[in-house]
Amino acid sequence: MGLLNFRKKETAADAPVNGNVEAFLKGYSIEVMPRTAEKVENFRDLLPKGTRVYIAHIEGTPIEDMVATAKRLADEGYPVMPHFPARIIKDQATLADWIARYQGEAGVDQALLLAGGVAKPHGDFDSSMQLMESGEFGKAGFKRLHVAGHPEGNRDIDPDGGTRNVEEALRWKQKFAETSDAKMALATQFSFDAHPVINWANALKAEGIDLPVHIGIAGPAKLQTLIKFAIACGVGPSLKVLQRRAMDVSKLLLPYEPDEIIKALSDYKAENPDFGIEQVHFFPLGGIKTNAQWAIDHGGASGVPANQQD
Fold first, then answer.
1. How far apart are CA 286 and CA 302, in angstroms?
2. Average pLDDT, stretch 15-34?
3. pLDDT of 70-123, one tens digit each?
């Protein structure tokens, strides 16, 4: 039976939805890949119309598969934000071709720009900044561009474990946002501890970087799965949250759920309305259906918020 009514399922305790969490989850987005999207018979059974869906472009995925997935999601009523990983795009002609395909076949007008998870560029582009400098998204009239944020740093960008290069890139992106017609935001890597996220977001504000933050959150999944992805993606200090959980025999076999970090961030947002986190972006590492159900159970009303409608 589908989830067309998007009602919170009843539990034995029939616990009420936390108001701060419900408000914090409003307008959440979620990420899919072509191969994971194929396993979903109908997204309308899982996600309310208007939910922004990112499509991750993994090295080796044909652009035809990416565009077909974008078209399917758009046809089902979802604003689509495909990834444009700089290091797997051969040259400017390829970039222009991809943009034209997405627009012509799926009506796409927003994108997540990032360096990409490969060490050696396949062609002319090495960073999301070079994609922005190409001018192709401006010529195509893209209304929204998101770029990557790293609350716990990124060793691909700062091999010494520091944050100097990441911070310089953010200042560059802030200046670009001030001159671009496109609306911009930071979509971050997932974290498991609210404290580094809060400190990072507040530090951005102190530095004059006011790009809205769409905080990455790992959806419910087996602990072993999360640890594997966290290590592969370079998650920093908050990985200790999972490692401590792995040492607790009583929790070792239980699936991880993001209740703790979501509650901490939502409570902080309620107390500090100007806090830079605008919304939640889910990485459904334990499956799209599982993540969507968790959001429903916790009062998550999706769909693009009014302040983000383009």
1. 19
2. 88
3. 999 999 999 999 999 999 999 999 999 999 999 999 999 999 999 987 889 999
CA distance 205 to 209: 5
What is the distance between the alpha carbons of residues 34 and 57, in angstroms, rounded to a whole number?
8
CATH of 20-303, one of 3.40.50.300, 3.20.20.220, 3.30.360.10, 3.40.250.10: 3.20.20.220
Separate counts of helices (H) and strands (E) for the chain? 13, 8
Whole-number pLDDT of residue 162: 57
Whole-structure pTM value: 0.85
Q: Which 3 state secondary structure label does DSSP give 93?
A: helix
Q: Compute φ and ψ for 296, nearest 5 degrees.
A: -60, -45
Continuous H helices in the chain: 19-25, 34-37, 63-75, 92-106, 128-133, 136-139, 164-179, 194-206, 223-232, 239-247, 249-252, 259-271, 288-297
pLDDT category at 308 given cuts 50, 70, 90 is low
How far is the CA of 171 from the CAs of 128, 167, 230, 288, in angstroms?
Answer: 13, 6, 26, 34
Phi, psi of 81 (to 5 degrees): -125, 90
d(C-alpha 148, C-alpha 144), whole Å: 14
